[in-house]
Recover the amino acids of this structure.
C-alpha cells in the first residue's frame, strides 16, 4: 500500500485502526507475561500500545513511517501524562535496539509478501538472539477492514533466522466507515471486531 495513504488517514482522522485504546490481544499478551525487556512497537500509529506499555514501566519505543502518526502519538502520550518515546522510522530498514520483544499490531499485513520478507530481515537486524516477535494481522476472512493475510504466510516469512512458535486465531478491533460499514451492516463509525492471526516467532 502507498505509504501516503496512511499519513493522509491520520490528517483526515479517518484511520479505521485508530480506536482510542489498545487491541485486546496485545493487552492479553502483556498480562500473560509474553512481553519483556526492551520493546519495539513498529507501525505504532496513534501510540496506544507504546503508551500502554510505557505506563506499565516497560522500556518501549514506538516507530511509524507516517509523521502525522507520530505527532498524534506524542499528543496522546502527553494528554495521558505518560513518558512514551516515539520516532519516525521505516519498518523495512530499522536501526537501533537491540530489542527483546516486538509487538506488531496491524503492520505486517499492509506489506506484500516480498516486503514481508524484508520486514522480517529488518526485525532480525534489531532483535537480540532469543527475542520474541508478536504479530497481530488481519486474517483472510471477508468482510475485512483492510489488507489480509493467510495463516500460511507466516511459516514462509519467519524462516532462516527465525523459529515460528505458533499462529493463533485472534480478533482485531477497528472502525467501519463508508463502504466498510455497509459491508459489515453497521452504522457508519461503529466499532467492529474482525478475525485476525496472532503469530509469535523467536529470533535465532
Amino acid at each position: 500500500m502507498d505509504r501516503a495513504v496512511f499519513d493522509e488517514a491520520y490528517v483526515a482522522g479517518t484511520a479505521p485502526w485508530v480506536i482510542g485504546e489498545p487491541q485486546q490481544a496485545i493487552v492479553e499478551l502483556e498480562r500473560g507475561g509474553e512481553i519483556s525487556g526492551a520493546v519495539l512497537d513498529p507501525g505504532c500509529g496513534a501510540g496506544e500500545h507504546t503508551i500502554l506499555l510505557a505506563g506499565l514501566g516497560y522500556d518501549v519505543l514506538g516507530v511509524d513511517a507516517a509523521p502525522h502518526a507520530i505527532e498524534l502519538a506524542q499528543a496522546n502520550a502527553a494528554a495521558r501524562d505518560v513518558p512514551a518515546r516515539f520516532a519516525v522510522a521505516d519498518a523495512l530498514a530499522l536501526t537501533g535496539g537491540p530489542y527483546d520483544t516486538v509487538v506488531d499490531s496491524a503492520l505486517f499485513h499492509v506489506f506484500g509478501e516480498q516486503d514481508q520478507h524484508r520486514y522480517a530481515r529488518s526485525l532480525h537486524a534489531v532483535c537480540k538472539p532469543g527475542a520474541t516477535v508478536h504479530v497481530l494481522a488481519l486474517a483472510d476472512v471477508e468482510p475485512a477492514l483492510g489488507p489480509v493475510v493467510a495463516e500460511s504466510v507466516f511459516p514462509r516469512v519467519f524462516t532462516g533466522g527465525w523459529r515460528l512458535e505458533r499462529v493463533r486465531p485472534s480478533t482485531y478491533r477497528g472502525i467501519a466507515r463508508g463502504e466498510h460499514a455497509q459491508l459489515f451492516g453497521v452504522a457508519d463509525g461503529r466499532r467492529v471486531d474482525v478475525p485476525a492471526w496472532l503469530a509469535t516467532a523467536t529470533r535465532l
